[in-house]
C-alpha cells in the first residue's frame, strides 16, 4: 500500500512539474514573440527616420514602446518610496504581513488521515449512522456560513464525508457530517481547511449531546468500534 501511495505521489509531482514546464514554455514563447515584434517595429521606425532625416538617423535611439521613459519613471517612484518616512511604511508593511499570515492560516488544509487504505472499501454510511447524525445534529444542516457565524437552516439530506472519501477519508462517524443537498453538492470533494473544521467543532460542542462530544472533531480517520458501543451511543 505504501509503494502504491509513493508511486501516486510521484506521478502527481510529475504532473505538476509538467504543467509548470508548459507554463514556462508559454511565457518564454510570448516573450520571444514580443521581442521579435519590438525589433521589427524598431527597424521600421529607424528605416522611416533614415529616409526622412538621414543626418540624424545614426544618432537617434528608437524606442517604439517608450521603455526607457517607463524604466526611468519606475526608478523615480522607487526612489520616492525609499526616501519616504519609515514611520509611515512600517505599520503598512506590518499590517500586510499580518494579513498575509492570516490568509495563509485560513487556507491551511486538513492533513490526510492516517488510514490503512487509500479508499475506504465502504462508500455509503449505514442507516444506523444516518439516524445517529440526524439525532446528534437535531436534523439540521451543519454547514457554517459567514465565517462560521451562521448555521444553515435546511434539513439534513446528504451524508457527507468531511474529509472526502475519494481522497482517503473513512466512512466512519468521526468523519460524518450531515448537510443539506445544496451545501453538500457545493462542497464536492474539496479538502476542508483546518479553520472550517475548527468552526464546525466549536459549533458541535454546543448542540451535540455531552456523551457524543468525542465525535465533535471530524478527523477523517477510521476508528474501530464494537457493535455494543454503537448500540450504546444510539
TrEMBL record:
Residues 157-189 form the HNH domain. It comes from the Bacteria. GO terms for molecular function: endonuclease activity; nucleic acid binding; zinc ion binding. Keywords: Membrane, Transmembrane, Transmembrane helix. The chain crosses the membrane at residues 20-40, 86-106. Gene3D superfamilies: 1.10.30.50. The keyword Phosphoprotein does not apply. CDD domains: HNHc. InterPro entries: HNH, HNH_nuc. This is HNH domain-containing protein.
Amino acid at each position: 500500500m505504501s509503494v502504491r501511495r509513493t508511486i501516486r505521489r510521484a506521478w502527481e509531482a510529475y504532473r505538476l512539474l509538467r504543467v509548470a514546464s508548459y507554463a514556462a514554455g508559454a511565457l518564454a514563447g510570448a516573450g520571444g514573440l514580443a521581442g521579435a515584434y519590438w525589433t521589427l517595429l524598431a527597424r521600421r521606425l529607424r528605416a522611416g527616420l533614415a529616409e526622412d532625416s538621414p543626418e540624424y538617423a545614426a544618432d537617434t535611439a528608437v524606442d517604439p514602446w517608450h521603455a526607457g521613459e517607463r524604466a526611468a519613471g519606475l526608478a523615480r517612484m522607487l526612489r520616492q518610496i525609499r526616501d519616504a518616512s519609515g514611520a509611515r511604511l512600517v505599520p503598512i508593511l506590518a499590517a500586510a504581513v499580518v494579513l498575509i499570515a492570516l490568509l495563509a492560516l485560513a487556507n491551511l488544509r486538513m492533513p490526510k488521515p492516517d488510514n490503512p487504505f487509500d479508499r475506504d472499501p465502504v462508500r455509503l454510511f449505514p442507516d444506523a449512522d444516518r439516524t445517529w447524525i440526524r439525532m446528534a445534529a437535531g436534523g439540521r444542516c451543519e454547514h457554517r456560513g459567514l465565517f462560521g457565524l451562521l448555521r444553515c437552516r435546511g434539513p439534513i439530506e446528504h451524508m457527507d464525508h468531511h474529509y472526502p472519501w475519494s481522497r482517503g477519508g473513512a466512512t466512519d462517524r468521526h468523519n460524518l457530517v450531515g448537510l443539506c443537498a445544496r451545501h453538500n453538492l457545493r462542497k464536492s470533494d474539496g479538502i476542508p481547511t483546518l479553520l472550517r473544521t475548527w468552526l464546525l467543532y466549536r459549533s458541535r460542542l454546543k448542540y451535540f449531546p455531552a456523551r457524543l462530544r468525542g465525535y465533535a472533531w471530524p478527523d477523517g480517520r477510521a476508528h474501530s468500534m464494537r457493535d455494543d458501543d454503537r448500540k450504546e451511543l444510539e
